[in-house]
Amino acid sequence: MTERITVFGAGYVGLVTGVCLAATGRDVTVLDVDPAKLESLAAGSCPFFEPGLEDLMAEANAAGRLRFAGPDTVEELSGIVIIAVGTPATAAGSADMRYIRSVVDTLEERAVPGTIAVMKSTVPPGAGARIASRLAPVGVDYVSNPEFLREGSAVKDWFETDRVVLGGSEESVARVRTLYEGIDAPVLACDITSAEMVKYAANAFLATKISFINEIAVLCDLMGANVDEVAYGIGLDARIGPAFLRPGIGYGGSCFPKDTRALDFLATLHGYDFHLLRAVIEVNARQRLLPVRALKAHFDSLEGLRVAVLGLTFKPETDDVRESPAVEIIDLLEAEGAQVVGYNPIPVALPGEVEVAEEIADAVRGADAVVLATEWAEIVRADWPALVASMKRGAFVFDGRNALDPAVIEAAGATYVGVGRPNGAGCSTGADGESR
Ligand SMILES: NC(=O)c1ccc[n+]([C@@H]2O[C@H](COP(=O)([O-])OP(=O)(O)OC[C@H]3O[C@@H](n4cnc5c(N)ncnc54)[C@H](O)[C@@H]3O)[C@@H](O)[C@H]2O)c1
Question: Rounded distance, CA 289 to CA 328, Å?
Fold first, then answer.
């Protein structure tokens, strides 16, 4: 017998979870407080861009396995209740638990005894144990089940996850495990706090890899080495692996920045100074300055320059611009007096008022400089000789992801600067803080 499943939150995690469970034969209700999202879902369209999700949603809808509603319309909660609401950063850097609290209030009021609350949202180690003791008196057990999917490949990640982590009592973990029947992945069953820590430690480690290679890129610039070769060389070591060793303008998105800050906050709260993590965060902030420094080194002043920023999302294949490096770089360029025009292969909702071109050629034509911020395939594979030819004389291309071929850009007549590439001298911050 499959259990009734309710998911709180129709965001990147909640909707993917609900749709994938419904597509594999479960009856699922997804609840969200956002009327615009519910309207879009009721019309069968996915409220955000995630490859493959809308098709799978159509299949689950056709099979009558998926329902969408507001949390207030549900009088009684039972079976397995998955929590996948947001935990954004507060101004202090901690995880904002207000949306979680509201769901826990609802569970306390409306869940029948025997219900299991499954936490998929990323919550600080220690939070789950407190929620569990709040829900125990009403007969609701609690399991921590952190999520590791990546936007842009979320559906694939759901079915091909590297591991399932379940923190809680043996009996409840066994019930939640049934959600993953048919998925070939190791299962770690542990206590709630360890499960929560797996998520934060994984994100902190991946962020560390990124900041590490960005530091190596600085040394490559100083010493005339090529960081791309170095990253490839160290990635061949099975103990290290090639993933997350791509130098550039740093990590962004709705997870790494907030989760690293929240872990640092938590360490400080417990009286521990997590030097390494603090350095990872600082290095990442510094990477955002690279394009601005490179443009200033080339042009002296950015006042009145037309700069095209290409790729506005925090990574390719998503429409998510939360903590996107491109958005932060646009702010920095505008603060220096540049006139910025953005381009992204799919439409995005940007904060503020930035001119966004519909075609890459329109963004680049007549520009003094280009900043490649996110390596969408369409941008990388564009006709770069033609794009450079349409720019002003003395054009400058800053490749924030080392995704372009420097020889092609330079043959077309522009100056090329990447991150830690030999002809990229001048783009990194030296150990003494001076631009090289
Ligand atoms: N986005 C990712 O790639 C990713 C990956 C792993 C883990 N996570 C974690 O998963 C959680 C959710 O992230 P997300 O990116 O899906 O967030 P999101 O912002 O895309 O979605 C959250 C949704 O929850 C809804 N919501 C808020 N309060 C609610 C309530 N009381 N009842 C019902 N719905 C409510 C919001 O309207 C929103 O639609 C976060 O803790 C995040 O850190 C995210």
Answer: 9
